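Q: How would the C-alpha cells look for this protein?
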Amino acid sequence: MPLSKLFSKKESNHKLGITLRQNSLTYCYMPEQEPGVCEKVELVAGNYITSLSSLKSLHGLEEGQCHLVLSAQQSQIVQIEKPKVPEAEMHAALKWQVKDLVNYSPDNMVLDYYDGPASATGPEKINVVCAAKSDLKDMVEQLMNDDFSVKSIVTEEFAFAGLLPVQEAACLLICQQPNEEILLLIVKQGQLYFFRRLRGFMQIGAKSEQELTMGIIDALSLEVQRSTDYFERQLKQAPIQSIQIIVPINNEAFLARKLAENTNVPVELLSLPEGFETQREFAAAIGATRLDLAEQNS
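A: Here is the predicted structure in C-alpha cell form.
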C-alpha cells in the first residue's frame, strides 16, 4: 500500500522502481518492449538527491512511472487505536495522535495508514506509516524535474509484499536487501497482516555454510516460529501454509534447506518475475513496481 500518492507530471508506460538504502540506492528500470535493467548507485557524499539526479544524466533513464521505496531509517510504522473521526479528517487527526511515537513533528510529517487485521475482541487498530515531508519533497521534485512521474512512495515491507501473488492462504516471507536487516512478513489475500524487522542478521551474507549452522539458522528459525505463533494464536488466523525466501546471499538455497528442516511448512525460494529471475538483490525495487498490479488483482 502506497505511503502517499503524489503529483504526476508526465505519464509513461515505462516503470522505475527505486530503493533507498543506507549507503546507496538501487533501481530497476522497465521500459516497454525492451529488457529491464537493474543497477546499484553509490551515494555521492551521502546525498540521495545527487544520486537521484544521476539516473537521467549518467544512467540515461528516460521518463517513466516511478515507485520509491524508503529505507527503515526514512520511515516509521506504528500501530494505534483507530480514531473515531470522519474519514476526511483521519490524516489530520493521526498527525497529532502519533506525534509522540515517531521522530517527525506534525508540520514536517507525511503519513498514510492501513487497517490492522480484524480482531474479535478489543478496539479496531490501524498501522500508521510516517516519513519526513521535507525529505520526500526534495526527492520528488528531483524526479519530476527529470520527467519521472512519482506514482507511489512505499516502505520495504510493502515493496517485498508486492512480489507475492494474491492468494487465500497465508504466506510468511523472509526477505532482505543486501547489508540491511532481515524482514519477516505475513501476507494473506494481498494484505500485510504482520511484519517484524530482525536485528543481528545484517551480515548474514558474509557467513559460510558452517557459520550459518552455528546458531544463525536456529536463531532465525526461532523468530519464524514466534511470528507464526503470534499470527495463529493472537490474531486467531489459520496456520501459515508456506514460507518463501528472498535473501540474496550466496548460501540462500542452503539457508532455505536448513530452515525447512526446522518446520513442517514448505520452504521455497521466492521466484521473481520473468526477466528478473537472477536480480535477487533488487527484489524490493521490482516489488514496488508491481503494487498497482497486486491491487488490481485483489
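The chain has eight helices and 13 strands.

Confidence is low (pLDDT under 50) at residues 4-10.

Upvote if useful.
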